[in-house]
Structure formats: structure tokens, C-alpha cells
């Protein structure tokens, strides 16, 4: 029998500026990173009763059946058989829902899904704010297209993955992560208009480095707080009588301050001012004004800390240590990146100084907190791709 083997690879992303703006129909300025999730998919005989997923990073396997039952085994190889009876989908391991969610979306398109095994490898840090979840979803979706001999355009793939994350993983995310992973381009950032989903590609000078430092801290309140921020933004829109926070600017918001409870006002001020900063940062990037981009990143971090309240002490320490280095030491600006309450920071730095900057911040962070941070430096990377061969 000819067996189809598919390999698909999708990058994580780092958001330079424009945080919590995507679900407010605003602007973001991410880049895909040189860190990828790779999946290898191989068909199983048609009479196999389940598909198997294996995550190398977690050393776990899950078995999945199209009727929605899936269960976890601690097996570390793909060839091991399930060691426990199937249980309801509710008890499936959380990570397997990202995979099953994507497959269900293809099934919803009316496509019949043959049994297969899927092995997942990644060097994107999990839960670090650089979007391992979208990298996983997009890689699985690209592989499924090959398996099912179907083709969706890039926007449809990103939206399918977003629906999977909403409906199966229970995370009400915006579309930035999936769009970045699909559409990333080497050496270019993407200014995303999250109302129209239009992308403007902006070249990143080779003089720039994007230094990512993972705080190795993740506070559990992230999910609940994310939902609450979304609800507060919706409340602000109702009280301001606008369709989305995209529709107002800072002066109009200030004029309407008395209509909003104090906390809701600050949440709205973050989003509205962040949209303005993001558009301006894109302009400055095009004009080669790196220092201004850095200042906008610093202001973004202050806004996330004071108004949106999504940072945490460890992240604030990391950002302060990076900002202290200043332009003389090669740092234009620094901010937390991603949903918040831990995860990674991104530093816009001079490429010639990248290693020294990373070492200095990591050493000072260890001295301040006792935590050994992970770090990598990246240039904007190409988006997802897949390869198919018959063996
Ligand atoms: P981020 O997307 O910033 O990394 P999320 O909390 O959105 O953080 O997604 C992280 C989750 O995605 C992990 O906890 C896990 O459930 C799932 N995930 C991502 N990559 C993998 C992988 N390679 N193997 C298994 N699960 C993964
Ligand atoms: Mg994610």
C-alpha cells in the first residue's frame, strides 16, 4: 500500500506592539519567529479504531476517535497501544484539544477523516506568549489539507484554527497569532488591521534584532483575566455607544470619561492608545526611526502595567532591566509580549549588540529573582509550509 507522509511546519510569533487590540478590531505589529512546530502525519490502516497524537515536548500521547472520545496515556512512543479505556472528551488532555479542534473543523466542512498518527515536535516555548498554540493549530491544519487533498486560502486556515481554539480549547483568542503563523515573511513585520484582516508587510532593517526573553513565569490567572478584559472592553463599547474601541481616539475617550467606571475607562484607554502607538510604530519602522519605535514599545509596556494591569512583578523586572540598557547599549525599547501575567518580553535592539544585551538582562534577572530565563534572538521568519510524499 502506498502510504502518504505529510510534514508541516508553522512558526510561533512575537508581537512587537499592539497588545490586546486584535479582539478590539484594532492594530497589531507582529513577526513570525525562527521557532517552529513541526508535525509529521502518517495514515493508519482504514480499520484502525483511533488516530494517535504524540507530543514530543510533553512526552505524552492521546488517542482520538471521530466520535469525540479521546484519552491520554503516558506512553512516550507512537507505537505503544492505549493503556486505558476511552473516556469522555472532557477528560482528554488539554493539549490534545488543540489538535482535535482543528480536525473537527475539517470534519465540519464535510470531509471524512481517515485514521492517522501525528507526531508533534516544537522549539516554540509552550505557554510563553509567543504562540505555541497557533503554531500547533496551523501546523496541524496544513498537514490535514494534504491528508484530505483539499485547499483553503491562508485567511480561511487562520480562521479555522481560531475557531478550533475558541470551541475546543476554550480560549477566546483574537486572530493575530494564527494570521502571523500563516502569513509570516522573512525579514518583514506585519501591520495587521484586525477589522479587515488586511496585512501590510514592513521590512525590518538587518541592523535590528528581536531579542526574546522568557521570564519562565506563568501566573494561573491568565485565562480568567483575559476573559474579563474582553468583557470590560465590550462594556466600554456599550457605554460609549460604539461598535468597537477601534472607532474612537484618545481625545474622544477622554471627553467621555464620566460615562465609564474608573477601571473600564483605564482598560479602554490602553486599547485606544495602543492602537495609536501601533500605527505610529509602523510608520517609524518604515522611516528607520528605531528610537521612536523603542519609545512606543516602552509606553506600551507602561500602559499594560498601569491601565490594562496584565503584567506581573517578574515581567516588570525583566522589562526594566532591558530598558535600563538604553540606546547606547543597543536597546531601543522593551515590553512584555503576548497575553500577559508572565511569559516573554521582546527587546528591539541593535543586531550587533544582541548577544551582549541578552546576557546582561538574563544575568541581572537571575540576580534579582533567582530565575534562570531562556532567551533567543530572531529575525522575522516565513510562515507555515507543508511537504507531502508517498512511501
Ligand atoms: P502560547 O500560545 O503563548 O504558547 P497558550 O496557553 O495559548 O500559550 O498555548 C499553550 C498550550 O498549547 C500548551 O499548554 C499546550 O496545551 C498547547 N501546545 C502548544 N504546543 C504544543 C506541543 N508541541 N505539544 C503539546 N501541546 C502543545
Ligand atoms: Mg496561544
CATH class of the largest domain: Alpha Beta
Structural class label: alpha+beta
Query: Based on the structure given, which CATH architecture of the largest domain is correct?
Result: 2-Layer Sandwich
Radius of gyration using CA atoms only: 21 Å
The ordered H/E elements are: EEEEEEHEHHHEEEHHHHHEEHEE
- N-to-C CA distance: 9 Å
- CATH fold naming of the largest domain: Ribosomal Protein S5, domain 2
Describe the structure.
The chain is of the alpha+beta class and 391 residues long. The chain folds into two domains: 5-192 and 385-390, 2-Layer Sandwich (Ribosomal Protein S5, domain 2), CATH 3.30.230; 204-378, Alpha-Beta Plaits (2-Layer Sandwich), CATH 3.30.70.890. It has helices spanning 94-108, 132-148, 154-167, 176-183, 222-240, 250-255, 262-286, 290-306, 313-325, 354-369; strands at residues 4-15, 27-28, 30-43, 51-55, 60-64, 70-73, 116-122, 188-193, 198-203, 208-218, 331-337, 342-350, 374-378, 385-390. A seven-stranded mixed β-sheet has the order 6-5-4-7-3-1-14, with helices on one face. Helix 2 crosses helix 3. Adenosine-5'-diphosphate (ADP) binds next to helix 1, strand 7 and helix 2.
Briefly, what is this?
About 3% of the residues have low confidence. This protein is α+β, with helices and mostly antiparallel strands.
